[in-house]
Amino acid sequence: MAEERVPRREFIRFGAAVGLGVASASVLAACGGGGESAQSEESTKKEKASSGGTTDPAVGAGAPIVQAAFLPPGFAFPFTISETGKPAILVHLKDESWAAYEAVCTHKGCEVGYEVEQPMLRCPCHGSAFDPANGAVANGPAQKPLPKVEVKAEGENVVRA
Ligand code: FES
Questions:
Q1: What distance in angstroms lies between residue 136's CA and the mean position of ligand 1's atoms?
Q2: Ligand 1 center to residue 67 CA distance, Å?
Q3: Do the domain assignments include residue 65?
Q4: CA gap 55, 68 in Å, rounded
Q5: Which of 30, 61, 63, 76 holds its CA 20 to 30 A away from the CA of 148?
Q6: At 54, is the pLDDT very low, low, confident or very high (cuts 50, 70, 90)?
């Protein structure tokens, strides 16, 4: 039986303050609301097709993920690990530090999203929740933490380490 999947795009709620990052321009453009034209919808489809079904930017080791100034504390930014094609998520923690994880639930593999209102990484399939500070399970049924993706602040960017 197919499990209900909620697109991560709908799960992650970006504030209006989250503007253009190093790799975010096309992503945020693809996140547009209901007023998209047929042309932009076509562009989005092409972008999804060319990136393996997601519009999240693919980021290789050592490459910038986002400009730090454009992601306020308490917000998150999805990206794709270019080497594996796995979805990942960068979180700017409220203490100003950065953390990133593979955004694949350790229960049964659904894509995890970030909840801004009550900062938590949540799986839409069966309700698992993960602490954005360390990836630990905050609520099951998942038993294992989210795998970390090493990141660091470098100049004005946050980069994959
Ligand atoms: S796949 Fe995430 S809680 Fe089941």
A1: 14
A2: 31
A3: yes
A4: 20
A5: 30
A6: low
pTM reported for the whole predicted model: 0.71
Q: Please report whether residue 2 resides in a domain.
A: no
Taking residue 141's Cβ as centre, other Cβ atoms within 10 Å add up to 14
- Sign for the CA dihedral angle at 82, 142, 9, 66 comes to negative
Nearest to 24 by CA among 77, 95, 80: 77
Ligand 1 atom nearest residue 127's Cα = 3
> Number of folded domains in the chain?
1
Q: Tell me the per-residue pLDDT of 85-143, one tens digit each, with 9 for 90 and over.
A: 999 999 999 999 999 999 999 999 999 999 999 899 999 999 999 999 999 999 999 99
* CATH number of the domain that residue 92 is part of: 2.102.10.10
Task: Judge if the beta carbon of residue 105 lies within 6 A of ligand 1.
Answer: yes
Residue 84 lies in a domain: yes
**Cβ contacts of 135 within 8 Å, gap of 6 or more:** 99, 101, 121, 145, 146, 147, 148
Structure tokens, 95: 């203490």
Whether 1 is covered by a domain: the verdict is no
